[in-house]
Amino acid sequence: MSVEDKSKEKKQSKVSETAPKEKAVETAAEEKAVETAAEEKAVETAPEEKAVETAPEEKAVEDTSSEEPTPKIKLSGLIGTKIGMTQTITDDGKVIPTTVIKLGPCLALEKKVKNNKISLKIGYEDAKPRLLTKSKLGYLSKLKVKPIKYVKEFDLLNPEIEINPGAEIKADIFQEGDIADVTSKSKGRGFAGVIKRHNFAGLRHTHGTPQNQRSGGSIGACAYPGRVWKGQKMAGRYGGKNSTIQGLKVLGIDLEDNLILIKGSVPGSNGSVVYVNHTRKG
Q1: What letter would DSSP give residue 257?
Q2: Could you tell me the CA-to-CA distances from 10 to 5, 19, 129, 161 in Å, in that order?
Q3: Residue 45 in contact with residue 53, Cβ under 8 Å?
Q4: pLDDT tens digits, residue range 163-203?
């Protein structure tokens, strides 16, 4: 063999020896790339798995919050406004005269304890501050409540409840079928005679009767008692006083608009303030 042939064989053997080394280096680099890609995927999927794990915990928290609703304030009555009258037709065709009252929403103010009775002061209807007295404005400002026109106490039926000033109380304290007593200021009719005021029959409209058929007649005896008895029915001012009608049935409630439907008539004109109480006569 010549010198040139020997040099060619040495070169080929060197190339054959370096080729496996280069392949080994390339395979090692590929394995490292695969491992780094797997690690990156693991890092990316880890937050998703954490989010999946935390999602049931958040749902559990939401479920527990929904299972514990805030207790409602239960009162013996509420303040509202008389809207007017309408008719309710029952399934058997009966027509019932019905009064519509907008009951609340009222604002809780503070608890009061007197003679072992726990009551709650509530307020109704927004008012302009310039129309209220300074004492009333100071009282409301201490409670951090907006100016309110009407303030009244009602019995608190669940005295263990915590009262937050400004909490709303709506018409859901009543239910269909409840019996209520309604108090309001009756319509003022001015000075009226005994026939209109006390339902006197009057004198007979026959021959010989003078023109005094609508008079009140005698108001007492002569020598004894020598005066007019207290409470004698006579002509005078009629209406314009607080009046209560008891035993009225609640026909229905509209919680969206805070309306309550009551069977029969209610004292006061449309737009007047009324006080609706649970009946005290069982």
Answers
A1: T
A2: 9, 14, 110, 101
A3: no
A4: 888 888 988 899 999 999 999 999 999 999 999 999 999 99
Query: How far is it, in rounded angstroms, from Cα 124 to Cα 74?
Result: 16
Q: pTM, whole model, 2 decimals?
A: 0.70
Question: Nearest-CA neighbor of 182 among 174, 193, 190?
Answer: 174
Q: How far is CA 222 from CA 53, 218, 227, in A?
A: 99, 11, 8
Distance, C-alpha 254 to centroid of its chain: 11
User: Across the strands, what pairs with 248?
Assistant: 180
Q: What would you measure as the largest C-alpha separation in the chain, in angstroms?
A: 176
CA distance 73 to 88: 30
Distances (CA, A) of 232 to 194, 219, 227: 11, 7, 11
Which residue has 């859901």 as its token pair? 172
The answer to whether the CB of 242 falls within 8 A of the CB of 228 is no
